């Protein structure tokens, strides 16, 4: 039988004949990771962008910044329901809940969206195909990781100049709280009033897969992190007449983060760079046919087994597993040791891309 026909008709048997010889069908060993090549600022119309190529995978990420009403961050849900912390061989659900700081002050948010167009393969073309839920699951996982206080201080997204100036403007016009009935002794109503006066940046990280060969979480997250690391929030000014923010032209942007009064009706924020508290690095393993653990699974390998991702944040490993059979703590500890060197390689690739961006 022709090799490609055998591969298409009997994929499990094709892979098994390689795996029993301790080698993979693409020539890699079980613990060989496809080294990513990262390029920063690949899209001129984005506030930050990056591309990641690893093997036959190619991802492109762009960051779009929008000013909107600040929203209080919820203390429940999100990353704590999808990730488990694993430290020194102990696996538990409550590590993130106790370790992650909950910032209830109104601020902005990062929203990641991962898109797999039809050019990525037939499984993404069929609305009822096996990968129909993959973009939603991966987008949610990346959004949770990026909004973790371990990774990003969301206070960087606040715009605080408008609320004080707008209150002063209302006082000058003779509008008082008693006339409007805006304030109440109720704490909830006070929170609503604060939300109505504060603004924040909201970051939309759009990730597009142009070539797909397995392991989407690792490389999509890597592209998002690389794009955020070279993101610069544009300069904006508050127009009392329009009662909204206007983006300053590029030549009007400054590197200062302080508030300056440019005229009687404008409050200006200069352009400023974003900073990540730590780089989240994901390393994914697949238990192919429930017999062999391989790192960085290809498209064929991930279809033949369940996968487990380990995300390194703030010097801690967090385990992400969606479905599949239970994995023992001893197995996870073994995979964690192997993932350490791989995460160091991905972190070095990010550092090189950032360094090249400033040259």
TrEMBL record:
GO molecular function, one term: mRNA 3'-UTR AU-rich region binding
Span list, region Disordered: 162-191
Ranges in coiled-coil conformation: none
Comp. bias (Basic and acidic residues): 162-173
Exoribonuclease phosphorolytic domain location: 33-234
Annotated transmembrane regions: none
Pfam families reported for this sequence: RNase_PH
InterPro entries: ExoRNase_PH_dom1, ExoRNase_PH_dom2_sf, Exosome_comp_Rrp42_subfam, PNPase/RNase_PH_dom_sf, Ribosomal_Su5_D2-typ_SF
The name this protein goes by in its record: Ribosomal RNA-processing protein 43
